[in-house]
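Design a sequence for this backbone.
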């Protein structure tokens, strides 16, 4: 097990380097001068502009900028944004909010999707199954901003159950509605994936053997059917966690969530290379760790999976 984890860490190094290099290159290749955007319609002092270029190493070639950035990462220095605020401070302020929102959304979509998908698979062809498929198809078809605006109107304005925007500090109670909105589309995908996996697992020999031995459905469903059906669902949920971290831009914008998505979008518009690359670096690290944890969970879900040389 330790050897497997060590090999996965070694495999993550080129992934991390390649990702940061590509992102840094794309930010570097963006047209326009990001420093000029800071002054708006005003004409900056040439001496001040030159000093800022030297301070942010914008007068250096691309490859020099990239290696300077990597050196800072190894020292724990993520650089400074064009507004003068350390990127590490921006990360410390925004990432906890988005991670909290992503975990809430993941919990909603996983628990709700697995339960509905399990019942739908066990009742294939029945009214519940047909209703679940129709509802999931509706959620998949609707754009996320439509679901967000409808949620705000119904639960925030009409019923008054939730705030339409997130207040300062992003408390848990303010994130409930954005979490449901963020989870809605992937929730529908998990319902359909769990349903298909349960239907397939029910037809396998070991399930029929369990019924032949006289085991009760209360024992067979959670131990034999659900447990073996969760492997593709867990894989999808782990992948979706990374998507939730970076893909919450629209939801965070609509609900005024002070998280990663909105901050990253603003940094891209302003061409702030250190901020963009630092955010992406941290998200890639989280994504790699989550995938490693999921790989280790496979051994618990399926005893046939073992990590050996």
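Sequence:
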């Amino acid at each position: 097990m330790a050897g497997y984890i060590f090999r996965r860490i070694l495999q993550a190094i080129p992934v991390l380097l390649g990702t940061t290099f590509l992102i840094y290159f794309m930010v570097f290749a963006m047209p326009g001068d990001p420093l000029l955007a800071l002054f708006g319609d005003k004409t900056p002092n040439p001496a001040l502009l030159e000093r800022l270029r030297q301070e942010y190493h914008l007068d250096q070639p691309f490859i020099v900028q990239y290696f300077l950035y990597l050196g800072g990462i190894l020292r724990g220095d993520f650089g400074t944004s064009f507004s003068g605020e350390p990127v590490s401070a921006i990360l410390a302020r925004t990432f906890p909010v988005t991670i909290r929102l992503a975990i809430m959304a993941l919990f909603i979509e996983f628990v709700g999707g697995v339960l509905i998908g399990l019942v739908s698979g066990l009742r294939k062809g029945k009214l519940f199954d047909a209703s679940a498929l129709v509802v999931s198809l509706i959620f998949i078809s609707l754009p996320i901003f439509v679901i967000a605006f409808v949620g705000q109107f119904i639960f925030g304005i009409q019923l008054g159950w939730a705030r339409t925007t997130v207040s300062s500090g992003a408390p848990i109670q303010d994130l409930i509605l954005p979490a449901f909105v963020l989870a809605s589309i992937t929730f529908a995908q998990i319902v359909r994936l769990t349903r298909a996996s349960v239907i397939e697992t029910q037809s396998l020999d070991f399930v029929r053997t369990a019924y032949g031995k006289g085991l009760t459905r209360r024992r067979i469903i959670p131990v034999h059917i659900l447990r073996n059906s969760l492997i593709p669902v867990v894989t999808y949920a782990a992948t979706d966690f990374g998507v939730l971290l970076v893909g919450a831009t629209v939801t965070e914008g609509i609900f005024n969530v002070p998280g990663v998505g909105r901050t990253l979008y603003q940094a891209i518009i302003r061409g702030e290379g250190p901020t963009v690359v630092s955010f992406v670096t941290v998200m890639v690290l989280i994504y790699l760790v989550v995938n490693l944890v999921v790989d280790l969970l496979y051994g618990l879900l399926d005893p046939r999976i073992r990590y050996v040389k």
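The first helix runs from residue 2 to 28.
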